[in-house]
Design goal:
This protein has 382 residues and is of the alpha/beta class. It has 14 helices and 12 strands. It has a domain of 205 residues: Response regulator (Rossmann fold). The strands form 2 sheets. A 6-stranded parallel beta sheet has the order 2-1-3-4-5-11, with helices on both faces. Strands 7-6-8-9-10-12 form a 6-stranded mixed beta sheet, sandwiched between helices. The longest helix is centred in the N-terminal third of the chain and has 23 residues.
C-alpha cells in the first residue's frame, strides 16, 4: 500500500507539474494577411499591432502573407486554419475574407478568431449566426476619421501655403468603388462642406490596390483640374499619389497609418507633401483585443465599431501636420473632432439605409451640415 501510495503521489506531482507547464506555454497568435506587408498603410498597421502584443505579453506571433492574387486567399486561409497546433488565436481582416472565415470558424471550436475591418454576419436581433460564435470582429468608423480629413483638406486648399491654389477643390483616389471606400469619401466630403460650403471634390477609383503608376496618373489629372490636395484611399496604389504630390509641389493625405512618418525614413522630401493621414488604428485595435482576451473580457460572437471616441480612427498630428496647419486650421479640426465626440455632428455613412442618399459626390448644399459652418461650432465652444 505504501508503494502504491508513493506511485500515486508521484503521478499526481507529475500531472500538476505538467499542467503548470502547459499553462505556462505562451499564447500563439497568427495573422493572415490577404495581401503583402510593405504597403506602409493598412497591413503594416496590423503587423505593428502583432509586434506590440509580442513586446508586451508572453505571446508567440507569426504572420502569413497570402499575396495579391484573390484566387489564393480562401485556400490560403483554410490551409492556415487547418494547422490547428500552430495557433490559439487567428487574426485576419478586410471584407474580402469575411465569408471565408464565417463559413469555417465553427469547424475549430477550440480556437479563437479576431476579425478586423468588417463585421461578422448577424441576424435581425444582432445575434451571431452559425459560424461566428468564436469570432470577435471589429470595424472602424472610417467616415468619422475621414470627416476630419475633409475639414483639414478644405482648410488647406484655400490657405496661403505654397503649393495651394485659390480654388476650393480637393481630390480623393479610391482603390475600388466598394462600400467601405465610399464611406471614407462620404465623410471626407461632409467634413469639407462643413469647413467651406463652396468646396468641390474630384473622386476617382483606380480599380487596383497595388498599382502606384495608376495612382500617380489619376492624381496628376486631379491637379490639372484644380485640386491641390488629394486623399489616397488606395493601399499600395496610393504610393503614386505621394509621388505626384512631390513631383508637382502639391499635397496629399495618407490613410490607415501615419504614412508621412513612414515615408520620411526613406524619402523625407516626399514626406513633407503628406500633410496628415486618416488613421485606422488597426494596430491599437489588435492590441486592445488581445489584452481583453487575456483578461477574459473579449466579447466573442459579437462585433464592435471603433470610432473617434474609442481611438479607432483619427488624424495623424505629427511634425508635418504641425508645420502645415496654422493655429486656425488646428482649431477647426479640434472643433470638428469635439463635435463628433459630443454628438453635435452626425457623420454620414453609406452603411445605413437612411444615409444612402448621402452618397459620393453629394453637393455641399445637400449635406446635413448645410447652413452650419465650422465657425458655428467654434463659436459654440467659446
Amino acid at each position: 500500500m505504501k508503494k502504491l501510495g508513493f506511485a500515486l503521489a508521484a503521478m499526481l506531482l507529475f500531472l500538476v507539474a505538467f499542467g503548470a507547464l502547459a499553462q505556462d506555454e505562451p499564447l500563439r497568435v497568427i495573422s493572415v494577411v490577404n495581401g503583402v506587408l510593405g504597403d506602409k498603410s493598412f497591413f503594416d498597421s496590423a503587423e505593428r499591432g502583432m509586434e506590440a502584443i509580442a513586446d508586451e505579453y508572453d505571446i508567440e506571433i507569426d504572420t502569413v502573407e497570402l499575396g495579391i492574387d484573390p484566387a489564393n486567399w480562401e485556400s490560403g486561409l483554410l490551409d492556415v486554419m487547418s494547422v490547428s497546433d500552430s495557433y490559439d488565436i487567428l487574426i485576419t481582416g478586410t471584407f474580402q475574407m469575411i465569408d471565408f472565415l464565417a463559413a469555417n470558424a465553427h469547424h475549430y471550436p477550440d480556437k479563437h478568431f479576431i476579425f478586423y475591418d468588417a463585421p461578422m454576419p448577424y441576424d435581425n436581433a444582432d445575434v451571431c449566426v452559425d459560424g461566428c460564435a468564436n469570432v470577435y470582429s471589429m470595424t472602424y468608423a472610417q467616415n468619422q476619421g475621414s470627416f476630419l480629413a475633409g475639414v483639414f483638406a478644405a482648410a488647406i486648399t484655400t490657405s496661403m501655403m505654397e503649393g495651394a491654389n485659390d480654388a476650393p477643390i480637393i481630390g480623393a483616389v479610391g482603390g475600388q468603388q466598394i462600400p467601405v471606400i465610399d464611406d471614407f469619401i462620404v465623410g471626407y466630403e461632409q467634413g469639407a462642406c462643413l469647413a467651406n460650403p463652396d468646396s468641390q471634390s474630384i473622386v476617382q477609383y483606380a480599380g487596383s490596390w497595388n498599382d502606384p503608376a495608376r495612382g500617380k496618373e489619376i492624381t496628376l489629372a486631379m491637379y490639372e483640374q484644380g485640386a491641390d490636395i488629394v486623399f489616397q484611399i488606395a493601399g499600395g496604389t496610393g504610393v503614386g499619389v505621394f509621388e505626384a504630390a512631390q513631383e508637382q509641389g502639391h499635397f496629399a493625405i495618407g490613410v490607415d497609418s501615419d504614412q508621412a512618418t513612414i515615408v520620411a525614413e526613406t524619402d523625407p522630401d516626399q514626406a513633407e507633401r503628406i500633410l496628415t493621414s486618416m488613421m485606422k488604428n488597426v494596430d491599437n485595435s489588435i492590441f486592445r483585443a488581445i489584452s481583453l482576451h487575456l483578461d477574459g473580457e473579449l466579447a466573442y460572437g459579437s462585433a464592435e465599431s471603433l470610432g473617434i471616441p474609442e481611438g479607432g480612427v483619427g488624424l495623424a498630428k505629427n511634425e508635418f501636420y504641425d508645420a502645415a496647419a496654422s493655429d486656425d486650421i488646428k482649431a477647426m479640426v479640434e472643433a470638428a473632432e469635439a463635435a463628433v465626440v459630443n454628438g453635435d455632428i452626425e457623420v454620414q455613412t453609406v452603411f445605413t439605409s437612411e444615409d444612402m442618399m448621402a452618397a459620393v459626390g453629394t453637393a455641399c448644399a445637400d449635406m446635413p451640415t448645410a447652413g452650419m459652418t465650422i465657425a458655428d461650432l467654434m463659436m459654440d465652444d467659446m
